[in-house]
Design brief:
Blueprint lengths: L1 H25 L12 E3 L5 E3 L12 E6 L2 E4 L10 E4 L3 H4 E7 L5 E5 L5 E6 L2 E6 L3 E9 L2 E10 L6 E5 L2 E2 L2 E5 L11 E8 L5 E6 L16 E3 L4 E4 L4 E10 L5 E14 L7 E2 L4 E4 L5 E3 L4 E2 L7 E5 L10 E4 L2 E4 L3 E9 L8 E10 L13 E2 L3 E5 L3 E3 L2 E2 L5 E5 L5 E3 L4 E4 L3 E9 L8 E10 L18 E2 L8 E5 L9 E16 L6 E8 L3 E5 L3 E5 L5 E10 L2 E2 L6 E2 L6
Parallel strand pairs: 5-11, 14-20, 22-29, 31-38
Antiparallel strand pairs: 1-2, 3-4, 3-6, 6-9, 7-10, 8-9, 10-11, 12-13, 12-15, 15-18, 16-19, 17-18, 19-20, 21-24, 23-27, 25-28, 26-27, 28-29, 30-33, 32-36, 34-37, 35-36, 37-38, 39-40, 40-44, 41-42, 41-43, 41-45, 45-46, 45-47
């Protein structure tokens, strides 16, 4: 029984050896064997070298390949190795290389399925070529070490196309008509498409973006398109579209491999780019930068691109750099600032240039005379009123001084206030600056008297409802009251006088008559603030009372006179 088992095992081994030889013969172009090399199959039927084992810790053999643009080092454990990815539709994706280094041993390769992938060995480089879509693996044997590289081959692949116009990332361009005579007319532009897979790029002209308006010969009255992506404006206004795309080896458009560029030809005005100075001067020491937003004025809503260029052999485009609207000096020399507005549906493509000078050090400029000025040499102001002198200068500080503050004062802003009638001189001084001398000026101030205010008309109402409280027997005082006037600020004057009534007989006999005679005493006054008053009186006399109001020094009319009753005896 034991001998039978050994015999069966030997038969199996011989069968596997024959199978291995058959594979070797079938793949004679991809399997290279050293003289006397022996191939065998393990008991699990996996193809392997008879002497292949796990590499020792001192092994220097290295097997590498590229996956997704990154280099991968193969492991003897196939499960740890990512798949090598190829495709059958692009030349660049159809082949790949597996590189062996760190050893002088002969390299052997065996594809698992030669209908899917082919492998050729030259020196220590294995060239892998896709045959058809599928998944397989390639075994690389170096001495006693064996590496299995998984392979995945696709028959479809996606590309990504990007566009530039005249060297800058963009998908729109505006051209001037071919008949434009403008100095900065832009009649041509070049579209450059780039393929992520490195494929050749094609250009087609359309009247719409739906793949239905293909323009025959890539030319119409609006624009003509060359095979290299060059656009040339025609005589007619309009908008067209350029499709930029790539094809596979079979002439079919790659999946997702297209981009559209919008081309507009129009008769538009030039963008109004202006400069606030004739040139920019910097140095490499203290004055290294310039804010372009303070130098260049652009039309509202437009953006500009800045570039340092050399217009001739005497200029150095490395003299300065532009970043984030800031011009920075780098080297001594002359250059040119190129300002470009690319154009839109309102303005056309416009370029303006400004000279740039970079010095080792900017010399201090000679100082100029002060520009201190005043609006008037003589000003007039009323007492209590103010007037502005209105001095102007580019200096950072102006000082005002009144020679007589009793007539007029002046504050730090040049506002003069009249104090009393007269004449006074206000001295004005402007501090010197780095480029300007100090300045001085005088203003003669005439202060006029303030006009008198007209007296305010005051109307005082007449007091009414004056009442006298009845007297008691032997009373020495009399109480008087009246209706209080509405408002504030009133005072009241109460006057009283005695009234004496007597009967006098006149004539004789039948002609004799009795005549009543009334005599009045002098008015006595008393001033109060309330609407009542108490008056001292004689016990036996009758009195007349009257009241009037006063306000702001003006008296009102007297009230009606009220006569007291005769006192009781």
């Amino acid at each position: 029984m034991f001998l039978r088992i050994i015999s069966l095992r030997r038969k199996r081994r011989m069968k596997n050896v024959k199978r291995l030889l058959a594979i070797a013969m079938a793949t004679a172009t991809v399997v290279t064997a050293a003289p006397g090399a022996v191939f065998a199959l393990a008991a699990d039927s996996a193809t392997t070298s008879a002497a292949a084992t796990t590499p020792s810790a001192t092994s220097t053999t290295k097997v590498t390949y590229t996956v997704d643009d990154e280099e991968v080092t193969a492991d003897t454990d196939a499960k740890k190795n990512p798949a090598l990815k190829l495709n059958t539709v692009t030349d660049a994706g159809k082949t790949a290389a597996i590189t062996v280094s760190g050893t002088t041993e002969k390299v052997y390769v065996i594809p698992e399925d030669t209908s899917v992938v082919k492998a050729d060995v030259k020196d220590q480089t294995v060239t892998v070529t896709a045959q058809k879509a599928g998944k397989t693996s390639i075994k690389v044997t170096v001495g006693k070490e064996e590496f299995t590289v998984p392979v995945e081959i696709a028959d479809t692949v996606s590309d990504n196309v990007k566009t530039q116009i005249d060297g800058e990332d963009s998908d729109t361009v505006t051209l001037d008509q071919d008949t434009s005579t403008a100095v900065n007319a832009r009649k041509t532009a070049k579209i450059a498409g780039t393929s992520e897979l490195g494929l050749a790029v094609n250009y087609d002209l359309y009247t719409s973006k739906d793949d239905k308006g293909l323009v025959s010969g890539n030319k119409n009255d609006v624009v003509s398109l060359a095979s290299d992506g060059t656009l040339t404006a025609g005589k007619q206004d309009g908008t067209v579209y350029v499709k930029v795309y790539t094809n596979d080896n079979n002439g079919k458009q790659m999946k997702g491999a297209s981009a559209w560029v919008t081309v507009t030809v129009a008769k538009l005005p030039e963008a109004n780019i202006t400069f606030k100075q004739k040139s920019i001067t910097l140095d490499v020491k203290d004055n290294k930068t310039a804010d372009l937003t303070k130098v260049v004025t652009l039309p509202e809503g437009t953006k500009a691109e800045y570039e340092i260029t050399a217009n001739n052999d005497t200029e150095n485009k490395n003299a300065a750099v532009v970043k984030d609207n800031t011009l920075t000096a780098k080297q001594v020399g002359n250059a040119t600032l190129k300002v470009t507005v690319k154009g839109d549906d309102k303005v056309r493509y416009t370029v303006k240039k400004l000279p740039v000078k970079v010095l080792d050090e900017i010399p201090a400029p000679a100082k100029v005379a002060s520009d201190l000025k005043t609006a008037k040499e003589i000003v007039t102001v009323k007492v209590g009123k103010t007037v502005d002198i209105k001095a102007t200068t580019k200096s950072t500080k102006i000082t005002y001084t009144s020679k007589d503050k009793k007539i007029a004062t002046v504050d730090k802003k040049g506002k003069v206030k009249g104090v009393k009638a007269g004449y006074v001189v206000v001295n004005i001084k402007a501090d010197a600056t780095d480029t300007m001398e100090a300045g001085a000026a005088k203003v003669f101030v005439v202060v006029e008297s303030a006009p008198k205010k007209p007296a305010k008309k005051v109307t005082v109402a007449k007091v009414s409802s004056v009442k006298i409280t009845g007297r008691k027997k032997n009373s020495k005082s009399l109480k008087v009251s009246w209706k209080k006037l509405s408002g504030t600020g009133y005072t009241y004057e109460v006057q009283n006088r005695t009234v004496t009534v007597t009967k006098v007989k006149t004539g004789k006999g039948k002609k004799a008559k009795i005549k009543t005679v009334t005599k009045y005493g002098k008015w006595a006054s008393k001033k109060v603030t309330s609407a009542s008053a108490t008056i001292s009186i004689s016990k036996t006399s009758r009195y007349q009372i009257r009241v009037r109001a006063a306000k702001s020094g003006k008296n009102g009319a007297w009230s009606s006179t009220v006569t007291s009753i005769r006192p009781n005896k």
